[in-house]
Amino acid sequence: MEGAVFSSRRFVHSAMDQGFYSITKPLKILKKMADKLKHKHGVTNSAEIPSASSVVFPRKLDSTVRVDVPRPKKSRSRKDKEDEEEILVIKGIEVDRNKFVKFDVFINDEDDPVSRPDNTEFAGSFVSVPQKRSDGKRKSTVLSLALTELMEDLNADDDDSVTVTLVPRAGTDDVTIGGIEIQFAS
């Protein structure tokens, strides 16, 4: 590149520009966006939320599903949290391959008597885009979402269970959920 001049001063200036982000800034922006996406389906009394063992799985996701999921370990040390990530596993998700499907997953503290958007954390979304295939119309998959940081944000690290809410967004009338559990991965 004839005539091109690299100026470290220009590079440093562009690094300080609003359009140039470090890795932490996008994560903070995503966290703020997730907080804004919290569901607005009103208030739910936690006494009305069934435990994961009392909900019959597999079950269709044709409406909002709320369950209390037991946690295998609680009150873990900082070292334990660094060694093993607590993971919410939604297993046996069966969807039509030729259909767009989306549902959101929210986490609540078991101690909150009332479930509202201000005491709920957005854990993530499941999205399946249409795939025109001839090898079958349905597929089965798993959604795994990290919980360690969410549990800290909710101040719920010592809770025996966590309330999980699945909120259908699109194409979920024919979606089946096989089960919900918490596992640990290193």
Structure, described:
There is one protein chain. With 186 residues, the protein is of the alpha+beta class. It has four helices and eleven strands. The protein has helices at 8-16, 24-36, 78-83, 148-153, and strands at 44-45, 59-60, 65-70, 85-96, 101-109, 114-115, 120-128, 138-146, 161-170, 176-177, 179-185. The strands form four sheets. The protein has a four-stranded antiparallel sheet. A three-stranded antiparallel sheet has the order 8-4-11. A two-stranded antiparallel ribbon has the order 1-6. The longest helix is centred in the N-terminal third of the chain and has 13 residues, at 24-36. The N and C termini lie far apart (48 Å).
Task: Please tag this protein with its features.
single chain, 38% strand, 186 residues, alpha+beta, 11 strands, three-stranded antiparallel beta sheet, four-stranded antiparallel beta sheet, disordered N terminus
Structure class = alpha+beta
Poorly predicted runs:
1-22, 38-47
Largest sheet: 4 strands, antiparallel
Distance between the termini: 48 Å
Helix percentage: 10-25%
Per DSSP, the total helix count is: 4
Rounded to an integer in angstroms, the radius of gyration calculated over CA atoms is 21 Å
Number of strands: 11
Mean pLDDT score, rounded? 77
The geometry reads as: globular
Short description:
18% of the residues lie in helices and 38% in strands. With 186 residues, the protein is of the alpha+beta class.
